[in-house]
Amino acid sequence: MPGSALIWRPAHKGATRGVNAYAQQVKPFPQALSWSAILLGWADRWMTVQELAALAENRLLAASGDELTLLSELVSSRSDTPRAEVRDLLQRLADRENWPRFFALREWQVVRLRWALAHLDDIRAKDGLETYYQLRELEAVWEDTGTPLDMPLLHPFLYSCAEMDDAEGGLELTRAQLERWLQGQEQLLITARALHDAGQHTALQTLAAAFETFQANGQGRLDLLQSEKALLESLNHHRHQELNLRVSAFNAEQLRRRVQQARAEKAAPL
Length: 270
Description:
InterPro entries: UCP015278 (IPR016630). By secondary structure, the protein is an all-alpha fold. The chain has one domain. Helix content is 61%, strand content 0%. It contains nine helices and no strands. Helix 1 runs antiparallel to helix 4 (83-95), helix 5 (101-118) packs antiparallel against helix 6 and helix 5 runs antiparallel to helix 7. The two termini are 32 Å apart.
């Protein structure tokens, strides 16, 4: 997977906060977040019914007609309201927006990743695997939000997490790359929203279709490579020592390149 190549997956018992333990914290959702984006993210249960009701309440004053009716129903939702029932209301709100699925999903990807990065340092581990758990947090976001292929590599090393502890070429570089990616996606969404508000729906749909084609074709190539990798590993299981040597050499060279990249980025003028 492009977001990660993590192989070793011990249980999360060593971390003081698991991958899906965000529900206990209040999450600030962008006021402009579309209902279409919330609908696409509803299945991963990251947003609670109470949070959705609060967001709907904040939008009541600007609503009218059918939208006001739907928002009022959302506001009256309780914590024990079935999520499927709430989803039906979200679907009706999303149907009014005429917002392409790609851009709605990209909104949700940005929201989820921004929150994860902002709270990544909250993850602590007593077993020396803190970086591993932080990477798993990011990997979970990548998986939960549709595995976007244009997101920077979360873990560019093979069969090992140790290199990500490096102060220059490890996790900090990945975080900086993700931050730049987020800034670019936020600008993309601003541009897409401007096209939508200007009534340029054909142009907007054309852009969305192009991005979706890239994702689908890229995923197809990735799936083929993963199948080939699994086949080669099954044939070469008796050559573990040679494989380990080559993996170590690859990871060392990869780390050297990332350290150079990190230093070059720090030296570059703003």
